């Protein structure tokens, strides 16, 4: 087939169980163009791109490549037409290695020993993109960020002419993001076609030539990005003005809630990935941990919340040593957890909403009588939760997997905050969410701080870290490169600290420690 030069989606409609996800959508992209696709969670962006990638079939409408109608009935057919996609929720086989996953999706793999050829491709793209990918690691051993990099390489190895990117920069440092943008711009100059699904309005504005905005399954506008500002984009997307900066008043630090002392944690391969980390979190404080995915954040959070054993050191909450206690005991000690991978660890996808609303709390007296669950109370609690936390759902009697990512995250945060925990551990709470959901969740974290809670926030979004946190710890290869007050002028060095090229001097650390206690 001739090289892909133009692609059109014409009057595409798709419904699930009577709910219309896409309603007569039109979009067009040409060679040498980056098209931004913008919309709230649940607006229909991912459904539309899954149709283009052959995972879903449209109920009506057609796809044209170079003016000729085509049928894309599988991801393989999509790849044959030169379309590659990097999904937000990764399409990887957890028990296989990186190289095996890429071999599985490699359309031009030789029959014998395909891995040798693919290894060269992986290493070449890893160097080009400054990705640190070990081809022999199993997928389950990788962080969410590392898994996303594998997906990006998988699409490029297949020679995708049109690349669909779903939130591609969520896991990169500012420097890596700049490098990645340069590569995308080079690809555009070479005539590639790129569709960028992003909730980062700056990203859409600075990188894309045009933007198509979806709301509730319909196109509400097409625009050239050159004449648009962020507020206009946000207004198109959610139909109202959005607050882009949050008022975080300075609050006096109250008593210590969390004390982590010289904690070391082993990774999945059995060697230390958190190396002697120490820090405290106080009431009325949000402490942020900034770093590129895969530097020990996940393992540190799992040790604090009881999902992984610490090999040495102590974790103390409200003066009680909780080191290596069970997740239930730690939860009962006043610790709540919003996990990094919300579908995998935050919910039971096949259970109803009202069942997920009381996970970890079902044994409490308010939800059970002797050996039986009190469904009346549980459902009343769930209805209040979805009202308070603005969870968009047709009913509390639907399977939780049918909600959009933003609404699942609101449900998890509501469940974890409902008991007013002393310590809230939030890992990437706004990852992949639209500006409306992000604004709402950030306000909830600030509200918990004002109510006297302590919040440990792990995020790769530096804007989020700067807006919400009272202090910022930077992690690199399992060690803290330093802990800074939010108004410290050395904040400008955080990108360098995340890359491991700068560390606070010991005297600076002593100053920071004195300032913090």
UniProtKB/TrEMBL annotation:
Q: Does the keyword Zinc-finger apply?
A: no
Protein name (database record): Heme ABC transporter ATP-binding protein
Any one GO MF term held by the record is: ATP binding
UniProt KW keywords: ATP-binding, Cell membrane, Membrane, Nucleotide-binding, Repeat, Sugar transport, Translocase, Transport
| Membrane association type | Peripheral membrane protein
Q: Where in the cell is it found?
A: Cell membrane
State the species of origin: Desulfosarcina widdelii
Q: Which residues form the ABC transporter domain?
A: 7-241, 258-502
Q: Which domain of life is it from?
A: Bacteria
Instruction: Read off the lineage from the record.
Output: Bacteria, Pseudomonadati, Thermodesulfobacteriota, Desulfobacteria, Desulfobacterales
CDD domains reported in the protein's UniProt record: ABC_Carb_Monos_I, ABC_Carb_Monos_II
């Amino acid at each position: 087939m001739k090289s892909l030069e133009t692609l059109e989606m014409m009057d595409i409609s798709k419904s699930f169980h009577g709910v219309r996800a896409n309603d007569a959508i039109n979009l067009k992209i040409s060679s040498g163009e980056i098209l931004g696709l913008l919309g709230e969670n649940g607006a229909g962006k991912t459904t539309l791109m899954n149709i283009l990638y052959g995972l879903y079939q449209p109920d009506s409408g057609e796809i044209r490549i170079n003016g000729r109608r085509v049928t894309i009935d599988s991801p393989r057919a999509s790849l044959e037409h030169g379309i590659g996609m990097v999904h937000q929720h990764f399409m990887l086989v957890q028990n296989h290695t990186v190289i095996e996953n890429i071999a599985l999706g490699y359309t031009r793999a030789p029959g014998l020993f395909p891995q040798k050829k693919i290894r060269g491709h992986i290493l070449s793209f890893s160097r080009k993109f400054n990705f640190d990918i070990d081809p022999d690691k199993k997928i389950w051993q990788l962080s969410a960020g590392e898994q996303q990099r594998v997906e990006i390489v998988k699409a490029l190895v297949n020679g995708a002419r049109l690349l669909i990117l779903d939130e591609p920069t969520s896991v990169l440092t500012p420097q890596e993001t700049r490098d990645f943008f340069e590569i995308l711009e080079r690809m555009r100059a070479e005539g590639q076609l790129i569709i960028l699904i992003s909730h980062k309005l700056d990203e859409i504005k600075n990188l894309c030539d045009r933007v198509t905005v979806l709301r509730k399954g319909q196109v509400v506008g097409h625009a050239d990005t050159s004449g648009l500002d962020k507020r206009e984009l946000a207004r198109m997307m959610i139909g109202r003005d959005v607050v882009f900066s949050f008022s975080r008043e300075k609050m006096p630090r109250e008593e210590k809630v969390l004390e982590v002392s010289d904690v070391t944690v082993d990774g999945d391969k059995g060697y230390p990935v958190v190396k002697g980390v120490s820090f405290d979190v106080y009431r009325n404080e949000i402490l942020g941990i900034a770093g590129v995915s895969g530097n020990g954040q996940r393992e540190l959070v799992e040790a604090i919340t009881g999902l992984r054993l610490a090999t040495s050191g102590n974790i103390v909450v409200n003066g009680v040593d909780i080191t290596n206690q069970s997740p239930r005991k730690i939860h009962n000690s006043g610790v709540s957890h919003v996990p990094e991978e919300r579908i995998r660890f935050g919910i039971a996808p096949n259970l109803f909403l009202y069942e997920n609303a009381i996970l970890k709390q079902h044994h409490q007296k308010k939800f059970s009588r002797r050996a039986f669950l009190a469904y009346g109370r549980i459902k009343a609690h769930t209805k209040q939760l979805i009202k308070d936390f603005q969870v968009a759902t047709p009913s509390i009697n639907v399977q939780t997997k049918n909600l959009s990512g933003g609404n699942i995250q609101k449900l998890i945060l509501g469940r974890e905050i409902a008991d007013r925990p002393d310590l809230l551990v939030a890992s990437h709470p706004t990852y992949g969410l639209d500006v409306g959901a992000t604004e709402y969740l950030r306000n909830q974290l600030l509200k918990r701080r004002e109510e006297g809670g302590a919040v440990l926030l792990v995020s790769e979004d530096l804007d989020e870290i700067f807006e919400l946190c009272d202090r910022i710890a930077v992690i690199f290869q399992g060690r803290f490169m330093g802990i800074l007050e939010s108004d410290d002028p050395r904040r400008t060095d955080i990108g360098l600290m995340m890359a491991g090229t700068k560390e606070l001097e010991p005297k600076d650390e002593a100053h920071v420690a004195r300032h913090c206690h």
